[in-house]
Amino acid sequence: MNRHLLSTADLRREDALLVLDTAEQMARLSDRAVKKLPTLRGRTVVNLFFEDSTRTRTSFELAAKRLSADVINFSAKGSSVSKGESLKDTALTLEAMGADAVVCRHPASGAPHRLAGWVHGSVLNAGDGTHEHPTQALLDAFTIRRRLGRLDGLAVTIVGDVLHSRVARSNVWLLHTLGAKVTLVAPPTLVPHGVSAWPVDVSYDLDAVLPASDVVMMLRVQQERMSAAFFPTEREYSRRYGLDADRAATLPEHALVMHPGPMVRGMEISSEVADSARSTVVEQVANGVSVRMACLYLLLGGADERDEREVTR
Amino acid sequence: MADAARRNDGPVDDLGAPLGDAGSRTSGADGEDAGSDRSGPGAERVSRTVLAAADISRIVSRMAHQILEKTSGGAGVVLLGIPTRGVPLAARLAARIHDVEGVAVPTGSLDPTMYRDDLRLRAVRPLRVTDIPDGGVDGRVVILVDDVLYSGRTVRAALDALAEYGRPRAVQLAVLVDRGHRELPVRADYVGKNMPTSRRESVAVRLTETDGADAVLIVSPDEPAPPAAGAGR
């Protein structure tokens, strides 16, 4: 394993599989009465969140607490950051407090990467701008493997606002590493520049792709990141790229419908599909805790390598 | 037992015949397969077979009988193997108990990794499967099964892990090999073979289920190495 988890693009296949296998053992914990493990006792994990997040922050917090780490939540609102402190000064403050790991979410792509160069502890990227969200991709892969038994050779279709989606980017790299075949489906305006360099197929026609998909991953349309009009109306977007019951019926019997959340029901996904048996939305949240426990264990559970100060990329 | 005569307690360094077993899994540090990552290229090793397949088979039979005797016919017994090689050993004991007495003893596995006291002394360890049989451990006689008993630290960790799954009526320990050098007050209830060793050596248990064949070997470094090479931490 690398010392940090910043991106899935630099995650080797064996490391990705190690995370998934470890998460499998962590998941078994939720079946037993005492869910706590002593493994990271005495370690400190800082949740450093510069962007609103409930799901990811609580998931990381629960994962760290289940491993007996001490957790400090540090959010930009109501902190020294709102008084004008720089990321670096914040990082050095956390460092001085003895943080063994920093879980960082930031609106700027690359912020966790910068952070990794400033602190001794491990940095886990919990979403940076429109760049990456590696633990989300790992939990998606974990969910697919649990449901379908494998990843190799599966056809995964990622639909929607790819342009603004760090989830899509992380999934593209991870799923490619794990042997799945990824197809992106989006309005032309929401397909990123440079997508031809990605290991994916691109389509603008959802109906053509669905019958051959083992997994459909719906993305939220990120209105808050949109600076221009990328499509005429929400209704038109929904008609062409939303997953409703009629469309879902064209999927193969075994196919999964995934969504990283938060869902906008009626926009990219209809309630009927979101609540159907093939939807993994709730499972994804539960699996998120197991996968984040696995990441924290693998990054913090072994010998302290603080002496080898290095940056992964 | 053909090998009994070779099992002597004297100096062992001179007895070995070199084996080209680069991929062998040695149980150096307290009886778990931590040896494989130590036997890197260039680590010249000398190993000798201490127990052959037939010996292991007889030992497992005897231990099964001892378990039946001590637990009055195996009532309420749960066998939990400590991965990796404790798990097939537990299954073999269960099968032998079934042959003798017709009782089906629940069998599972217990991975103590996350309860170890040496996690931060080494690179991170991969987790193994924990599989507690249906019916749990509450009120049962849990017999932990491992291949090699050494420092006792794995067993201590396993006791902690076990406590999270319930409160057994009693916990016992069965090991194929007791190689001595305890660092904690731990004692096995059922011992396949007491095997005095030097800390520099490793005991390698091989089982058909995990390694393709049954054997127990003592592996010594080729040249006497001053630091405790085979002794782990």
UniProtKB/TrEMBL annotation, chain A:
The protein's assembly and partners: Heterododecamer (2C3:3R2) of six catalytic PyrB chains organized as two trimers (C3), and six regulatory PyrI chains organized as three dimers (R2).
SUPFAM superfamilies the record matches: Aspartate/ornithine carbamoyltransferase
UniProtKB keywords: Pyrimidine biosynthesis, Transferase
InterPro entries the record matches: Asp/Orn_carbamoyltranf_P-bd, Asp/Orn_carbamoylTrfase, Asp/Orn_carbamoylTrfase_sf, Asp_carbamoyltransf, Asp_carbamoyltransf_Asp/Orn-bd
Name of the featured protein: Aspartate carbamoyltransferase
Cited PANTHER family: ASPARTATE CARBAMOYLTRANSFERASE, ORNITHINE CARBAMOYLTRANSFERASE, MITOCHONDRIAL
Domain Aspartate/ornithine carbamoyltransferase Asp/Orn-binding: 152-299
Reactions catalysed, as given in the entry: carbamoyl phosphate + L-aspartate = N-carbamoyl-L-aspartate + phosphate + H(+)
Chain's role: Catalyzes the condensation of carbamoyl phosphate and aspartate to form carbamoyl aspartate and inorganic phosphate, the committed step in the de novo pyrimidine nucleotide biosynthesis pathway.
Pathway(s) the chain acts in: Pyrimidine metabolism; UMP biosynthesis via de novo pathway; (S)-dihydroorotate from bicarbonate: step 2/3
Pfam families on file: OTCace (PF00185), OTCace_N (PF02729)
Entry-linked NCBIfam families: asp_carb_tr, PRK00856.1
GO MF terms held by the record: amino acid binding; aspartate carbamoyltransferase activity
Binding site for L-aspartate: 83, 166, 220
